[in-house]
Structures are given as structure tokens and as C-alpha cells.
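Per your request, structure below.
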């Protein structure tokens, strides 16, 4: 899959290999475009060469696990315990 971004301040008409025509609004992205629609496409290559569009290929990133979060009540209990430990250490 690829993402196409319109870098201009005007609407850009994309003619895909399947024959479909897509209007991309200024500054917006068209996501999830098949590579087969862009491969060996002279009109897409020309627009990219004129810096009117930017094509980004999607790379699959492994999902990062979310950091563990301590509930506020557990956090407060841990802080109270730490204070109690400090008082007994004195």
C-alpha cells in the first residue's frame, strides 16, 4: 500500500492504472493506494517529478506495547508505604 500527498495549493487529478481518476484536494493525503495502481504510470511519475505529489510506501511497523500504568490508588498506597518506611528508618 502507498500514500499519496498533494503538495500543491490546487486540486490534483490522478489517473490510476485501472483507469480510475481521483481528485486529491490541496495538502491532503490519499491513503491505502495499491502499488499496482502506481507502477509504470507515466502521469503519476510526471506529477512526482514536478514535486506536485509525494508517494510514501507503507512499511509495517510492529506494534509497540503500551507501558504498564499503575492505578492512582496503587500509586498513592506505594507513596504512603514509602513515607512510613522513611519514618521507621529514622
Amino acid at each position: 500500500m502507498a500514500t499519496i500527498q498533494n503538495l500543491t495549493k490546487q486540486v490534483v487529478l490522478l489517473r490510476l492504472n485501472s483507469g480510475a481518476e481521483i481528485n486529491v484536494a490541496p495538502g491532503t493525503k490519499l491513503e491505502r493506494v495499491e502499488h499496482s495502481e502506481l507502477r509504470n504510470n507515466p502521469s503519476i511519475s510526471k506529477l512526482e517529478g514536478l514535486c506536485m505529489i509525494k508517494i510514501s510506501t507503507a512499511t509495517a511497523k510492529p506494534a509497540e506495547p503500551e507501558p504498564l500504568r499503575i492505578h492512582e490508588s496503587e500509586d498513592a498506597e506505594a507513596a504512603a508505604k514509602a513515607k512510613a518506611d522513611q519514618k521507621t528508618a529514622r
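Strands lie at 2-6, 12-15, 21-24, 29-33, 53-57.

Regards,
D.
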